[in-house]
Amino acid sequence: MTSIVQISDTHFGTETPSVVQALEDHVREHRADLLVFSGDITQRARRVQFASAEAFVRRLEADGVGNTLVIPGNHDIPLYNLFARLFTPYGNYRRHFGQELEPVFENQAMLVIGLNTTHPRRHKDGVVTARQVDQVARRLADSDPDKVRIVVAHQPFGAMVPSDLSNLQHGAAPALQRWAEHGLDLVMGGHIHLPYVLPLSRQYAGLAREIWMVQAGTTLSTRLRGSSPNSFNRLKLHPGEQKKVCVERWDLLDGRFVLGSHFNLSW
Question: Where do the Calcineurin-like phosphoesterase domain residues begin and end (predicted)?
Fold first, then answer.
């Protein structure tokens, strides 16, 4: 069994120290093969916020995370510093999390493809480009079909409530149609601070196979949505001819993270 911990929308600069400690305690106890960090690492893309986020990730690695895959969110591009936004939009991100904006992780159990769907000329909307669709399709086609195959992007591909339809990726429909033909299993995201698991065939008719949407809430930030507490996802992968994934949502309760719900997915 292989495990992934997905965190998102930490918005360093608005994090709650006790929640940071609670997540570190969880990782120390349960460990993980891969940490997926699906964007909005910081609140305003400032160097001190990225430095705090990097130190946090390094502590998680020391506590038992085997590997890390990080992508930027729209908050990880400067908003008020217009010069930096136009000329070095990912400067602070790259200083602390490396040059690669679209990392890929692969082992015997999974293929995880990171997408950068942000752009300095957009405020918050995400876009999947034709180039990205082609690149992901080629990676999927070249991979072992027995592996669990995942795409990670900051903005969501599927909406649970009508008010989130405006937050969907631009270009989501043709991307999903193409990727389904090449065997994509899951898409993971954040952005809207609402955790859920959703079969995308309900929203996109005619997919060649089911693709599941796994959305993360805000893991550490005070910027909670409605009644949703701080949370993160833990995925337990069982690859093979019949792939199975258990998606657990862990919610903050009385100062610690506890199992809130779980979904069993299979293909």
Answer: 3-194
Residue with tokens 């969907």: 168
Residue 257 tokens, joined: 């993270």
Burial class (CB in 10 A: 0-12, 13-18, 19+), 124: middle
Q: Which two tokens stand for residue 211?
A: 């693709």
**Any idea what the CATH number is for the domain that residue 196 is in?**
3.60.21.10
For the chain, the domain total comes to: 1
Full pLDDT tens readout for the chain, 267 residues = 999 999 999 999 999 999 999 999 999 999 999 999 999 999 999 999 999 999 999 999 999 999 999 999 999 999 988 888 989 999 999 999 999 999 999 999 999 999 999 999 887 999 999 999 999 999 999 999 999 999 999 999 999 999 999 999 999 999 999 999 999 999 999 999 999 999 999 999 999 999 999 999 999 999 999 999 999 999 999 999 899 999 999 999 999 999 999 999 999
Question: How many C-beta atoms lie closer than 10 Å to residue 123's C-beta?
Answer: 9
Distances 26 to 60, 62, 118, 256 between C-alpha atoms, Å: 10, 13, 30, 8
Verdict on whether the full-model pTM lies above 0.90: yes
Distances (CA, A) of 140 to 30, 36, 103, 183: 30, 19, 15, 7
Of 64, 66, 74, the C-alpha closest to 41 is 74
